[in-house]
Amino acid sequence: MLDVRRLRLLSDLHRLGTIAAVAEARAYTPSAVSQQLSALEREAGVPLLERTGRRVALTAAGQVLVRHAETVLAALEEADAAIAAVRTGPAGPIRIGAFPSAVRTLLPQALVALGRDHPALELMVTELDPVAVPAALRERTLDVGLLHDYDIAPAEADPALDSVPLLRETVFLAEPAETAGGVLAETATRPWILATPGTLCHEVTQRVCRAAGFTPRARHHADDFATVLALVAAGQGVSLVPELAAVPPPAGVRLTALATRRRTRVAFRRGAATHPAVAAVVTALSNATHPAVTPGVTAHGNATHPAVTPGVTTPTNATHPAVTPA
Q1: Does the N-terminal peptide bond of residue 248 adopt cis geometry, omega within 30 degrees of 0?
Q2: Coil, strand, or helix at residue 125?
Q3: For residues 81 and 61, what is the distance between their CA atoms, to the nearest angstrom?
Q4: Measured between alpha carbons, how far is 318 from 259 in angstroms, rounded to an integer?
Q5: CA distance linking residue 68 with residue 215, whole number of Å
């Protein structure tokens, strides 16, 4: 019989690439990971790993077993969800990971609803970059996490995770109000405030600008959207900002809606969708996107019109004027 814990280590090795990375993720020593994988090879009766110096790769049999391991781990999640469903209702700890703008705008309402409707839940929120969410879900330090990508830079599906759509946001061009022109192509010679190179936001800005015929010239790098907008308001450059982080804009910033959209999904381990606590969180987050609490926010792909928000303009081919903040 194959040991499930060892199957999980094999799956980790396939995902992370090295025994050292697996050891770090699982708080083991590299020697302990190697011993467990060797024991799994004995259980399987075939070589699972090919060792070349310090490098390790999966054999054909190892690749086959990894695919089955994902199915086994998902089945265990389904079994845990089925047992939890026998209880009287959602209860116990539930760990939620979300990016900063969602923590500020969506999580408070969702947490209030969960506390009211499911008082037996122990809610724990961690502010987390979406890039770290898949690993945290796999490693069971999170139960539910928010992921996002952009229509111009779609993410690859993770075979260990399931997810449901939550939100589709407009991406805005943010400019100093005094010099705003509202045309992306006209910012080609202006300084830009970009995210850190290597991040999704940085890549998205590069792609959007390339599609408009230019490469943005970076003056500043900042990853926090509040900082980005403060720099824009100070006349330090222009930037791209998603709706949750931008509406309403601070004084001195003019937003112009672009065609690009940021897409947010609620993710959880494959097989966990019917777990009462997970289902309760998904429902609460979904409900939190419905009310038009903030003008201009797009919920579930049904775009609202941001022209009613001070400092926001519709796309540049719109015929009605922007509203200027008082």
Answers
A1: yes
A2: strand
A3: 30
A4: 13
A5: 44
Topology given in CATH for the domain delimited by 90-166+263-288:
D-Maltodextrin-Binding Protein; domain 2 (3.40.190)
User: What one-character-per-residue DSSP string does 215-245 give?
Assistant: --EEEEE---HHHHHHHHHTTS-BEEEEHHH
Q: Tell me phi and psi for residue 8, to 5 degrees.
A: -65, -40
What is Dmax (Cα atoms) for the chain? 74
Residue 222, SS3? coil
Q: How far apart are CA 195 and CA 192, in angstroms?
A: 10
| Token pair of 57 as six digits | 């790769």
The token pair at 140 is 């069971």
For residues 193 and 202, what is the distance between their CA atoms, to the nearest angstrom?
A: 10
Fold that domain 169-261+302-313 belongs to in CATH: D-Maltodextrin-Binding Protein; domain 2 (3.40.190)
174-204 tens-digit pLDDT: 999 999 999 999 999 999 999 999 899 999 9
Q: Which of 297, 300, 316 is nearest to 308 (CA)?
A: 297
Q: Please write the tens of the pLDDT for every residue from 118-153.
A: 999 999 999 998 989 998 998 889 999 999 999 999
